[in-house]
Amino acid sequence: MPLADPAAPETPDPEALTPGTPPTGESLADLAYRRVEDLVVTMELAPGARVSEHGIAERIGVGRTPVREALQRLAGDGILVTRPRRGMRVREIDLATQLRVLEARRALEGTLVRRAALRRSPEQAARLRETAAAFRRMRDAPDPVPALRHDRRFVDLLLDSADNPFLASIIPLYALSRRFWLAHYARQVRFEPGAITDFHIRIGEAVAAGEEAEAGRLADAFLDHVEAFARFVGLDLAASS
């Protein structure tokens, strides 16, 4: 489902692209990576599902060579896993993985938002404010998928603003976190509705304003919240088993 927000940052919605046509500046392998990542995050490719070059190429309308490169990158990033005699599969969802993902995010996320606040251009600041406004409009929307896709755009904009390509290793960590959140969305509603969207709004506004210390503080508080939710999910699953 594409995000109906003309003011949103320009990273394209994977579902809105013409099959086989990458956006400006992206290769076909980049396009394939984004499309498969989106299928995994939205669980259109289910956890544990087997993934083949041929099947993915047919599904997303991209040739097998760029699909092969994209799948190798996704496996290297931990979104897909390869097992002997079982082929390539979508990584399963579990609490232990989510907690390790959050541990790794803590090493990167504060730096990402602080550097974005320090280095963002006036044009990027304007786009960050637009992004925060779009999050505010979708805060109470019944379908969480557009917000997940908008979050991918938000991360891309933070990375562009931070101007440090080595921070891009955070992209698959965000993807796995988004999928965990979507898988347990009903529990999020019981835990603290709207809190994650509120954090995105406040972080976006702080980065846009160049408030480096505040952006870092909010990122730390956000990760505390996300970890608390993950542990809440673990307790809830244990209680219901």
TrEMBL record:
<dbReference type="GO" id="GO:0003677">
    <property type="term" value="F:DNA binding"/>
</dbReference>
<dbReference type="GO" id="GO:0003700">
    <property type="term" value="F:DNA-binding transcription factor activity"/>
</dbReference>
<keyword id="KW-0238">DNA-binding</keyword>
<dbReference type="InterPro" id="IPR036388">
    <property type="entry name" value="WH-like_DNA-bd_sf"/>
</dbReference>
<keyword id="KW-0804">Transcription</keyword>
<feature type="domain" description="HTH gntR-type">
    <location>
        <begin position="26"/>
        <end position="93"/>
    </location>
</feature>
<dbReference type="InterPro" id="IPR008920">
    <property type="entry name" value="TF_FadR/GntR_C"/>
</dbReference>
<dbReference type="Pfam" id="PF00392">
    <property type="entry name" value="GntR"/>
</dbReference>
<dbReference type="InterPro" id="IPR036390">
    <property type="entry name" value="WH_DNA-bd_sf"/>
</dbReference>
<dbReference type="InterPro" id="IPR011711">
    <property type="entry name" value="GntR_C"/>
</dbReference>
<feature type="compositionally biased region" description="Low complexity">
    <location>
        <begin position="1"/>
        <end position="19"/>
    </location>
</feature>
<keyword id="KW-0805">Transcription regulation</keyword>
<dbReference type="Pfam" id="PF07729">
    <property type="entry name" value="FCD"/>
</dbReference>
<dbReference type="InterPro" id="IPR000524">
    <property type="entry name" value="Tscrpt_reg_HTH_GntR"/>
</dbReference>
<feature type="region of interest" description="Disordered">
    <location>
        <begin position="1"/>
        <end position="26"/>
    </location>
</feature>
<protein>
    <submittedName>
        <fullName>Transcriptional regulator, GntR family</fullName>
    </submittedName>
</protein>
